[in-house]
Amino acid sequence: MFDPVIDANFNEQKSSYKVAGMLFQTIPIEFKGVMTSLCSKTYPLPVKKIENGVFIQLEPFETSKHGDGLFKIFADPTVIHRYKYTTLWNLNDKEDFQRWVREETQIEDRIYFMIVEKRRNQIYGLIKIVDCDTQHGVGEVGIAVKLGTPKHFVLESDYLAMKYFFDFLGYRRIAGSAALQSLLIGKHASKFGSKFEGILRQFIVRKNEIWDMTVYSVLDEDWKVLRTAFEEWLEPLNIVANLPKKSFSDILKNSSIYDSLLDTAYNLKTAPLKTIKNFCPSDPLPVKLMSRNVTILPVDSSIHAEKIWNLWSSNKECNSYMLDCLSSNKEMYSKWLKHLESEKNTLLFITLNKNHGEVEMLQRLRHIEKEDSDINFISLDCILIKAFISVDVFLETMFLLLSYLFDELNFIRVEYLCDDSNVFFKEFLIESEFQREAVFRQHMVFDDRRIDVSVFSMLKEEWELNKKQFFAERKNKVFSEDHAQILNYKAKY
Fold it and tell me: The N-acetyltransferase domain covers which part of the protein (predicted)?
């Protein structure tokens, strides 16, 4: 079933979503750059800059200056226990901490700030801005502080980080996620004006535990309102004995966005953690999959380029809603297709209708695997689709792919991304029994059009039920007797 929070306004093209708060663990990079076309604007990479506040300041991390103080925070067992559901869970080990520092400080799309009290020059934790996408102007944020950190220090850290991100770098959207089990993080989130976007189910497997992740965001248009509220909260008239007199949440109640700031974080319920043993799915291969009416082939641009171009040319209006917008220039198209083929951990597949030999779909399969955060799942998106494609062809295509991914490779989560304004394609995904999990607001930009991205998913236990129903309803119509099981799993094209 759909999540009731997300589904309340499903049929509205521009839905409103309930709200939670601050952002803590980063959304993995697969959500970046889904659209390979260039935007009309590019954004800068992060640069080191001190952000000075009233109670604290954010200092760019320097190993020689901050390394020992930060490790002391993570060496505290109470701190690690608080952040066991984040990517910081193992930094209480000195060797792991040093390796993490070396690796993270070499990546150009991120910056780590130390939260430093101005009066005593004491380190209270860190706040990070990572995975900055210079094409779409989006990034992720996370925060970790030691036990006993004053709440107004944490809140001002949020403010200064967003001030750096929106005002200094000029980005559009900052987002993040926290494990559904992290109620502490959810409660802090509820005091801040970021919006709850959904729950990504079975998103992480760590130490045989399966975690769901909650997702939040702040847009530049939200920031304009939040900044005014923060400035009022931090003005001298509101500071008495070095403490804010009026709470930030009270100030925010008078803002223009307060009506939408519903306390979702407190309403989220944690379910018992599911466990799994020996989770080690196989890597996807460029296989050929067949049923009676459909053949799925891995793309070879030297063979399929013309057929794919014809698919695009015959249905530009529909395909402009897909997450990749092609150029009408054939030379640019050829470069685009070769670029897609060369993407790391990515496979392209076409669906051939066996009745007439035409290409009806071009889909991209990404194997999302991040060892540092125990993420391992499949992300799909449809790049091109034929006008008036039949539901049967679409369902049969999805059945072949899902059977391969779940039954043969043993994944437990497959997600599908699409433009949220593409009602046509969302209906196809619902028909395929995908569940709508989240909407990433204004996650991408193309030709100055801000695009909301819908996230659908299917879990392995759902697949076990769906495939039985699929065979029961469609066996005689779609599959011949010798296709009762999908053929040619391992037959390389």
Answer: 58-176
